[in-house]
């Protein structure tokens, strides 16, 4: 039998020792309880194994070399995962073995980790102006889903009002996760802002919550946040705002315009883009029992013992599936603990001034890009009447080319064009969602403008 240096216990002598210990003659005997008709009678159709680590590394490096990344290309892609700058200290801290190899920790050990988790929730609470922030969820989509399910548990209602033009991928997650909830879309005005008249017509006594994204998926700020909150509360519903944390150094946090629950994605906070892996969601509320007892995730607190020593621990653990299993309000996982460490490091390094400078930098570059790109023949900014942050829509209907054709031509010039909206949001026509971050140089924007001049 093949022995693999990177797979434990594949040595035949070790396998025999384990089989002898449990009194089995073969591995097949262990699986004998599985009915014969459902068992596979052939080996898995897998490539020949590499028994040498050196050969395996060479093989994997060859695969990775085929990738085209944001390091060697100019990127204007966003739509939920963003090419922000990651300070070196973030990778230095989250690569330490005490964080990397034991990402969760418990109350009886890893006290330094519990303090780090507490610091994450504390700094996020300060950024969001909220009292309670939980351990991260799997991603922003789960945070949004949990927020909606929290509203149902709080008021017993089963309708959630969401923007009709929200992120299609996020909406897909909500439909999958929020079992028993009726998700109803609210129309937008021509300038992209939520249509308040349509919202009023759909606010009934069965509405559990009103959910908005701010900035909206199409990039602009929802400037009616306070009015939406008042309308929501007029029928006793919960107001949920999905907010990008990278904007919160320059704009009001959701709590300041009436949000009961704030949620979103923490990937912008020092986490590399990683094929969907570098994601984590945040969830925040006021410190009220109806919210606190409906968090399915870990909460962390600081306490002082009889000797005057401070410590950190999980708070109210009986809410979670870790303690009550199938009786829990929802299930949770701890796989994103490492991103809590990373985000805490990022926030500590940036501080309030750094977050303000980040937002100002992005806003300036985004405005520059919109001004330059909108001057191109055949290019329009359909939502120019609203104010955008780091993303905005470019429409090419008048140019006579599809976004797919344009992006293919841009890629040949070493540029990742914006996210193609024409597939998931056909009502937008031939439009792309362009993203500009602090890593985007003005020269990158000029390069995009010049490339589009040639292509169009």
UniProtKB/TrEMBL annotation:
Residues 6-451 form the Glycine cleavage system P-protein N-terminal domain. One of its GO terms (molecular function) is glycine dehydrogenase (decarboxylating) activity. Its EC number is 1.4.4.2. It comes from the Bacteria. It is an enzyme of class 1 (oxidoreductase). InterPro entries: GcvPA (IPR023010), GDC-P_N (IPR049315), PyrdxlP-dep_Trfase (IPR015424), PyrdxlP-dep_Trfase_major (IPR015421), PyrdxlP-dep_Trfase_small (IPR015422). One of its GO terms (biological process) is nucleoside metabolic process. The keyword Oxidoreductase applies. Keywords: Oxidoreductase. This is Aminomethyl-transferring glycine dehydrogenase subunit GcvPA. The lineage of its organism: Bacteria, Bacillati, Bacillota, Clostridia, Eubacteriales.
């Amino acid at each position: 039998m093949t022995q693999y240096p990177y797979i434990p216990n594949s040595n035949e002598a070790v396998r025999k020792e384990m089989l002898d210990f449990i009194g089995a003659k073969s591995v097949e005997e262990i699986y004998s309880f599985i009915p014969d008709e459902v068992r596979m009678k052939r080996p898995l159709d897998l490539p020949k194994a590499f028994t040498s680590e050196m050969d395996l590394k060479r093989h994997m490096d060859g695969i990775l070399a085929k990738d085209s990344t944001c390091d060697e290309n100019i990127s204007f892609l966003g739509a939920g995962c963003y090419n922000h700058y990651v300070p070196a200290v973030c990778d230095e801290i989250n690569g330490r073995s005490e964080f990397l190899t034991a990402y969760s920790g418990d109350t009886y050990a890893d006290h330094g980790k519990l303090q780090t988790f507490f610091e994450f929730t504390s700094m996020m609470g300060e950024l969001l102006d909220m009292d309670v922030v939980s351990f991260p969820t799997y991603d922003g989509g789960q945070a949004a889903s949990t927020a909606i399910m929290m509203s149902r548990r709080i008021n017993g209602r089963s309708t959630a009002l969401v923007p009709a033009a929200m992120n299609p991928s996020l909406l897909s997650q909500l439909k999958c996760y929020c079992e028993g909830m009726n998700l109803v879309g609210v129309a937008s005005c021509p300038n992209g802002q939520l249509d308040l008249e349509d919202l009023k017509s759909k606010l009934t006594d069965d509405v559990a919550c009103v959910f908005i994204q701010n900035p909206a998926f199409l990039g602009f700020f929802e400037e009616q946040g306070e009015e939406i909150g008042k309308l929501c509360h007029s029928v006793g519903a919960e107001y949920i705002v999905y907010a990008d944390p990278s904007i919160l150094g320059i704009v009001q946090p959701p709590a300041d315009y009436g949000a009961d629950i704030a949620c979103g994605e923490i990937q912008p906070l020092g986490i590399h883009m990683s094929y969907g892996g570098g994601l984590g969601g945040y969830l925040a509320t006021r410190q009220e029992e109806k919210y606190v007892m409906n968090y399915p995730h870990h909460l962390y607190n600081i306490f002082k013992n009889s000797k005057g020593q401070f410590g950190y621990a999980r708070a109210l653990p009986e809410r979670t599936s870790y303690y009550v299993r199938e009786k829990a309000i929802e299930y949770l996982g701890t796989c994103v603990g490492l991103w809590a460490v990373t985000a805490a490091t990022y926030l500590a390094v940036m501080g309030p001034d750094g977050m303000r400078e980040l937002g100002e930098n992005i806003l300036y570059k985004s405005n520059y890009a919109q001004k330059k790109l909108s001057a191109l023949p055949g290019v329009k900014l359909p939502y120019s009447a609203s104010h955008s942050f780091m993303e905005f829509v470019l429409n090419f209907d008048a140019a006579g080319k599809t976004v797919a054709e344009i992006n293919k031509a841009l890629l040949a010039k070493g540029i990742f064009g914006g996210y193609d909206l024409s597939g998931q949001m056909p009502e937008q026509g031939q439009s792309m969602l362009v993203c500009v971050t602090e890593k985007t140089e003005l020269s990158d924007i000029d390069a995009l403008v010049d490339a589009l001049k040639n292509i169009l």
